[in-house]
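**Backbone description:**
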Amino acid sequence: MAVESKIRSLHADEIECRVGSIGEKGISLLLYKNARVDQAILDEVFGIYGWQRSHMMIGNSLYCTVSIWDPEKKTWISKQDVGNNRGIFEKEKSAASDSFKRACVNLGIGRELYTAPFIFIPASKVVVTEKDQKKVVKDSFSVSAITISADKVITGISVINQKKAEVFRWGNLNAAEKNNGDANEEWQELYRELERTKVPEEQILKRYGVKALSELDEVSRKRALNGLKRTKSAA
C-alpha cells in the first residue's frame, strides 16, 4: 500500500487559522498545521519506530528528510523539502520546523490544505485595532467543521471566532456538522447568557480553573450555562 494512501485527512481541531491580510472591507485567513500534528499523525499511522527525520544544509538552506519504513519492501521511503528562514530570531529552529512540515506534506499529511477556498471575513464580523501604527486583528479563529474528499480535496468548511460564532461557511458540511451543531449552539448560548446577566468571564474562569472559556470541557460548559440560566438579568 502506498504511503500516501495510509495518511488520513486532518481533523478540524488539527487545523489552525492565521490572518493573511487585513483590508478595509475585511480580512483573509490562511489554514495551516503545526509540526506537533505531523509528529502525532506519523506516530499514529507508522508507530514511533516506523519513521525518522534528519536535517542537512544544502547551500544556505536547511533541508529535512522524513523517512517511512516499508515493511513489505524492507526499505525506507523518504521525502525531502526545504524550510524558509523568516526573520533572524531563532531562524534555525524556524527553518527546521518549516522544512519538516513541508516534507510531511510531500508524504501526504495536510496536503488538502492547499485546496482550501479563499477565506474572507467581512469587517462587520471582525474587530480590527491598531498597535504600533499597524492594524491588528483582536479576534482568534478556528475550524469548527470540515469535509474532505477521498482524494484530499476540501469540499466544505466552517470557521468560528473565539466566541464560537460562525464567521465563514463554504461548501457541503452536513455530515461534518452532525456532531458539532449542538455544541456550537451551546457555546453561543453561553455567551448570550453572559451578556444578559453581566456575569464577568473571570468569575467563570476562576470557578472552573481555566484561563479561557474555550478551555471549558463539555461538562463544565453545561454546568456554567445552567448556572447562568438561573441567574437574574442584570439591571
